[in-house]
Amino acid sequence: MQNPELNRHVVASAHANIALVKYWGKRDKKLNLPCAGSLSLTLSPLTTRTELAFRAVGLDDLVEIDGTEADARARQRVLALVERVAPAPRPPVHIRSVNDFPTAAGLASSASAFAALSVGCDRLFELNSDVAHLSVLARLGSGSAARSLFGGFAEMKPGSASDGSDAHAVALFPKDHWPLSVVIAVVDAGPKPVGSTDGMEHTRLTSPYFAAWVDTVAADLEAAKSALRDRDFKALGQVAERSCLQMHASAMAADPGVLYFRGVTLDLIAQVRRWRAAGWPVFFTVDAGPNVKVFCPAESTATVETALQALPGVQRTIRCVPGSGAVAQWAEGSLPGNNPTFV
Ligand code: PMV
Prior knowledge:
By secondary structure, this protein is of the alpha+beta class. Helices cover 34% and strands 25% of the residues. The chain folds into two domains: 4-177, 2-Layer Sandwich (Ribosomal Protein S5, domain 2); 180-322, Alpha-Beta Plaits, CATH 3.30.70. It has eight helices and 14 strands. β11 and β12 (292-297) form a beta hairpin.
């Protein structure tokens, strides 16, 4: 095999997303096919930036995450996606990925990571795939990543094909459709004790509430889409909070129960409800971790953020707005260590 071009690299980036109608449960674990649809908002500035380059033939693939070489499991997840884009024989690749927010803390770092990796690999191997295909590819890395391909509001279609070719996200409304903010109250930035894949699979297999949870999703998707269409904040909050609590209820009812909430998570939920009773336009959602995400109209962001920062147990807040979809482009120059002639 001839050495590939080594003096340029791809720079890809994608944002995290937060689900308003949650995804929790796979109908096919290997292909990461969801049991039901889901709906999310892509979040700026939470970003994964991924650089990709070819390495000189004879070198090993190199995968780096947040400045250090990836462990065996993460490396395998990344390279599985590369192999799907470019089956062997292929030149070795160097992939280095940096998150600007805590990895694996229920802040959906896998969503932005696999969305960035999908568009990045597609560009590196010059495939120019359509966005539905890229969303399928991202889904193979992480179910929620399929949604981060798109800016603004996106809906994940569960699909029905056994090969997963129709299980991808679609764009619903662009990022400027509705100026909402999401303030993340970080109560613990460490990794979660039970990853979402293990948590949802355990729920599917052991929770008597799992089927009931899946049954809620279709109606919630319709309710969320109509609230988005009408920019009806109250209706959106109602469906988002109920989808969140129903997802967690199904997980808590597993055997043994999967519990992502901490005491402080419940305190924050209660506070958001008190604020709402007092007339503030706010609603909450919580993913597979203890951190609480609070939605509000853009004009209330400063008030909500200051109030959250004053609450006991809140370590920091991260202010987010609707973000754009995943992108990748070529940049000049090599990545270090890829050409043994110049190291
Ligand atoms: O994409 P995964 O496997 O990390 O699962 C995401 C699960 C939730 O974040 C809890 C819900 C969702 O729809 O994003």
